[in-house]
Amino acid sequence: MATTDVDYFGQDRRERLMREKVQDRWMDAYAPVRHLDPVLVFTALSLAVIGIAMIYSATYHRLQLEGLPAGALATRQMISLAVATVAMVMTAVVDYRYFRAYSPVIYLGSLVLLLLVLTPLGVDANGAQRWISFGGFNLQPSELAKVAVIVALAALLHERKGEPGVMTILFALVLVSIPMVLIFLEPDLGTMIVFVWLTFVLLLVGGVQARYMLGLGLAGLGAVIAAFKLDLLADYQIARLTAFLDPGNEALARTTQYNANQSLIAIGSGQITGKGFLAGSQTNLSYVPENHTDFIFTVVGEEFGFLGALVVLGLFAILLWRGLRIAALAKDLFGTLLAAGAVGLFTLQIFVNVGMTIGIMPVTGIPLPFVSFGGTSLIISFTLIGLMLNVHMRRF
Amino acid sequence: MSNEQSSTLRLTLLTLIMAGLLVALISRLWFLQVLAGERFAQLAESNRVRFVVLEAPRGRILADDGQELVKNRPAQTISAHPRELLNGLGEPRNEEAEAVLGRLSMLLGLDHDEIIRRLLSRRYSPFRPVPIAEDVGPEVIFAVTEHQELFRGVVAETLPVRTYPFGTAAAHAVGYLGEISEEELELEAFAGYRPGDLIGWAGLEKTYESELHGTEGLRKLEVNASGTVLQELGRRDPIRGNDVQTTLDVELQEAVERILQDGIEASRLIKRRDGRFLPSVAGSAVVLDPRDGGVKAIVSWPTFDPAEFVGGVSHDYWGFLNDGENQYPLINRAIQSTYPPGSVFKTVSGSAAMIAGHVTPSTRISCPPAWSLGGITFRNWNTRHEGALDLTDALMRSCDTYFYQLAYDQWLREQNQIANDGSTEEVLQTTAFGFGFGRTLGIDLPSERPGVIPGREWRLQYWERTKETTCRKAEEAEPGTYAERLYNELCQDGFRWRGGDAVNSSIGQGDVLVTPLQVAVSYAAIANGGTLIAPHLGDRIIAPDGELVRVIEPEVLGELPVTPEQLRALQVGLEKVVMNGRGTARGAFAGFPTDQIPVAGKTGTAELKPKVPYAWFAAYAPANDPQYVVVVSVEQGGGGSQTAAPIARRILEVAFGLEETPFREGPRTD
Prior knowledge:
The complex is a heterodimer.
Chain A: H1 2-34, H2 38-65, H3 72-93, H4 96-101, H5 103-118, E1 122-125, E2 128-134, E3 137-139, H6 141-159, H7 166-185, H8 189-205, H9 210-229, H10 235-243, H11 250-254, H12 256-269, H13 281-284, H14 296-329, H15 333-357, H16 375-393
Antiparallel strand pairs in A: 1-2, 2-3
Chain B: H1 3-35, H2 37-48, E1 49-54, E2 61-62, E3 68-80, H3 82-85, H4 95-108, H5 112-119, E4 130-134, H6 138-146, E5 154-163, H7 171-174, E6 177-179, H8 182-185, E7 198-200, H9 203-207, H10 209-212, E8 217-223, E9 229-236, E10 243-246, H11 250-267, E11 282-288, E12 295-301, H12 315-321, H13 333-336, H14 346-356, E13 365-366, E14 370-373, E15 376-379, E16 388-389, H15 391-397, H16 400-421, H17 427-434, H18 456-476, H19 482-493, H20 499-506, H21 516-527, E17 531-533, E18 538-542, E19 548-551, E20 556-559, H22 564-579, E21 600-606, E22 614-621, E23 628-635, H23 640-655
Parallel strand pairs in B: 2-10
Antiparallel strand pairs in B: 1-8, 2-3, 3-4, 3-5, 6-7, 8-9, 10-18, 11-12, 11-23, 13-16, 14-15, 17-20, 18-19, 21-22, 22-23
Helix pairs in contact in B: 11-23, 14-16, 14-17, 15-22, 16-20, 18-19
């Protein structure tokens, strides 16, 4: 009996140790998952779902008039969301430090795609060539380039251990300039502004000294003035950029200002609580052009009013807060820079896009992340969420 | 500072920047949606809702038996959507629009800029096509409908426009339409009218504008950004304007027009004593029902075609109408021209003499060929002495000298009265006023003129108005000439109402001016037993569904200021003019069955030197039961019995269903 007992206990302990060993191995394998940020994922998905509802509201009437199914575009966005979720998971699974290793490849790959846009493979729309077509799926390489630039700059600044010198800064500027020139040729002024901002955020967080930041700021200002002086910008671009500063201009009011005016009317007329889902006349009757893509925020403003706008901006605030938290908690500078870059990118897009719909920013073709219709934008946004999750999960 | 701290600090800085941006967005949203939300809500509503005016068809103008003088007809019209062809600045939107405008210009024979001008008319709401050319030929309609790809934005449609089943008949009476002016838009009477609306510019169209106009309808539409109409939110149907039934006898009207023209043209073949033909440049005729003042026919010659005004009068036609060579056909001479009445005025001066007590109907007064006053000789039209005449014979023979004497007697009495007690009553003026002269009679046609019955007060005012001119002319005139003497006298003494003035006035000369309508109304009063009735064309207003809205009652202006006995003398005198062997119009009515249809009338030949005299004839028949008053006047038509009476005779022939006799030259009497 005793032997049996001993045997029993000994066997038990061995078995238990073995079991725990196996469990530990499993636990190790799952460790990053346990540090997932559910709030971030939930917020991003909420915004995407709200976006699909807004896209439906903005397009159902127009599609019906054309004899198409009312939910055609909303359905397409749902498919994009599924693809985007997969992209998020895939980005989150691979240890982000691999991205650091492969950053030159990622960077050069995005440059190749940007070059392809300018070849006959590129798709022309409204006088600008911004897409390449892959058997029915349109890819916008400038969106990918944003991620690539974040990764490349983060990797570069990580190497310098947070104390970048002049050479590093210059190298960083060269890295940013090459894709910017290619995008300038498309042309896509809005995305160029994004690149300038990304450079600023990454250099700031990457530890560039205040006096260099100041110098860069002055140089940037000089570049903008030079761009206007040297006629590098097309007239319509200047008109767009300056229209919002001059709402009384009659000639502009009929063209550039029209979108902005109708957008203001849509949002303003939503008042506090909005006109209700599918009940916005400005939205339904297509008074706001592009209201399922760049002007999607007008649907929120008109149909759900000030309170609805606060909810959407609140969700964005949560998302940015989680992103900043991830940047702060990251194990290394590369992780911090990745998260800060993503947060910076979202911030600028939100501000420029919403600001454009409410008349405090010029009209540029920058979509509202997660909400605007458009597969590339949605996938890239979720890829950035995946990147942040990646950094967060592997913070120990 | 460690890396760790530096990184945190930098992230905090980034956080602050982001928070700042978010606050900027929210405060702007607060302003837009909460503070200014109300205004934007209104803007959104005005974006969404559009109003389209549905124009009301105009009411019709009918003859006394209900026949349509003016109605609406569908017109093949080429219209275009301004928004598809023009941009906000009124220029062609793009090259295609420019090409379409070019093709339209070729097809319609209209200037490119004229098409744009019409497209920009504010009369039409932007959600309906704007008419460019009305009444186009079928080949134009085919071109546009068969080749829509060449005429994008252009449509062929059918619109109601004014049409005149009787052509130019009663053109002056019915009038025509034109676009409302900016000044008129501000008037109370045109409240609710919009720029570009058509309103009556003349004739009954103008007088009865408020009845004929109708009430426009309104469609409330929901439209989207591209202007596509999505649904009708509400609708108020237009209400057609009321019909105006007139007293006009359209067959008689047509006949009078024809007869007046024929008579005028026939008179132009008459040679005057100096060997030249009569000019007979223009004329008018009025036919009244003396019992109720209803106008049976009203004619002014030369006339015009109101159909030329449909869709806007052409530049050429407007030029034609306003050229003095053509005698200004738009003038309705029956009410808008004033002439010296000549002898048709003797009913008034005869009455004045009886009222003043200078004569009774049977008093006989000598009728010499000439009569002098202060060294000036006033002649009768006849060079033979006619003996002593009573009033009826004086009218029959139209003896001027009979009336000279009476007018002078009265003038003397008035001069004495003024000297004695300051009384300023002037019998001729008050009598003429009682007969409807020197004032408007309130006919329902626009721009009726009052004419002039001169007197002492009038003379003084006239002198004050013209003194400066006459005195200057007196100074400028060659010394010792007649002109110098004349102007000097006018300058210094022109305010005086002289005996000669009274004498001239008594035979409808001097400064007396009347309209043919006033003559007709005064003769109607003589015919109907003394009641002065306001002439009118409107008889009743009828709703589009046929229901009677109201009857336009004849308005009695007053009674003639004569006793029945005196009135009877006038009637007898007028009957003698036509039916007595010695009457001045006897010759013109030779062969007329006066035994069945007795006619009373008066000739008139009004001097307006240096022009050829104006011919007058005023008549009523049957004299024992008057149904028609006819007044004819012909500018520079020579003698009344020569030109006017034959026209009046033929009008009476048609009015009474007699066989119409051809024009022959009448006798040369007064």
